[in-house]
UniProtKB/TrEMBL annotation:
Native species: Leucobacter chromiiresistens
InterPro entries (UniProt xref): KR_dom (IPR057326), NAD(P)-bd_dom_sf (IPR036291), SDR (IPR050259), SDR_fam (IPR002347)
Name this protein carries in UniProt: 3-oxoacyl-ACP reductase
Pfam family, any one: adh_short_C2
Organismal lineage: Bacteria, Bacillati, Actinomycetota, Actinomycetes, Micrococcales
Alphabetical keyword list: Oxidoreductase
Domain Ketoreductase intervals: 5-178
GO molecular function: oxidoreductase activity
Length: 236
């Protein structure tokens, strides 16, 4: 039987985060999710946390540690978008996306790190995006934040790799979520045409990659970017 771990999924109240939390539960782990509103799947512990506020993240961890034990697997999934072209993008639209998506990940992983080091085990899984390295018009803020996660995971690997801690990145392509469903039909068709698999991905397919990275079979994989994008990025 795979080892049961305490798992935290940030932004686990919908979409990809919700699916990852469901899969981690099915794998037999103890699962907590952070959420700004709403809750995670039945059977998970939902705690309120704001990614832009270190004190709120600290309080969330304290609650999780009290109820489920030290966090051993961190899935940093919480993120926002504020898409607009560079010349129209305000500084606030840039910095707020960086603050949630990249600095928010820093706050979460830093808070988790002491426990990971103490336990000499850790799986840090950062949810990036195909646009992190492929780029996307109107997404300079978002793609910068998602590309930053790659350098984060690789530096973390060099710092903590000898302590039984891995850090990897999942780069989803276009996944069927509320966010993609809101796109105009013509735009959806255009995206489909560029995906070799000829379809959008399912949230369960991202969850499967997270399940693998959290498990015993992935102990020697670190600093990797795992694309789950139907061939769209081709190694980007």
């Amino acid at each position: 039987m795979p080892t049961s771990r305490t798992v935290l999924v940030t932004g686990g109240n919908r979409g990809i985060g919700y699916a990852i939390a469901e899969r981690m539960l099915a794998d037999g782990h103890r699962v907590a999710v952070t959420s700004r509103s709403g809750s995670g799947p039945e059977g998970t512990l939902t705690v309120r946390a704001e990614m832009t506020d270190a004190a709120s993240i600290d309080a969330a961890f304290t609650e999780i540690e009290a109820q489920l034990g030290p966090v051993e697997v961190v899935v940093a999934n919480a993120g926002i978008t504020k898409d607009t072209l560079l010349l129209r993008m305000t500084e606030e639209e840039f910095t707020s996306v960086i603050d949630t998506n990249l600095t928010g990940t820093f706050r979460v992983v830093k808070r988790a790190a002491k426990g990971l080091l103490k336990g000499r085990f850790g799986r840090v899984i950062l949810i990036s995006s195909v646009v992190g390295l492929y780029g996307g018009p109107g997404q300079i803020n978002y793609s910068s934040s998602k590309a930053g996660l790659v350098g984060f995971a690789r530096s973390l690997t060099r710092e903590l790799g000898s302590r039984g801690i891995t850090a990897n990145v999942i780069a989803p392509g276009f996944i069927e979520t509320d966010m993609t469903a809101a796109l105009p039909e013509a735009q959806q068709q255009q995206y489909l045409g560029s995906i070799p698999a000829g379809r959008f991905g399912q949230v369960a397919e991202i969850a499967g990659a997270a399940s693998f990275l959290a498990g015993d079979d992935a102990a020697y994989i670190s600093g990797a970017v795992i694309p789950v994008d139907g061939g769209l990025g081709m190694g980007h």
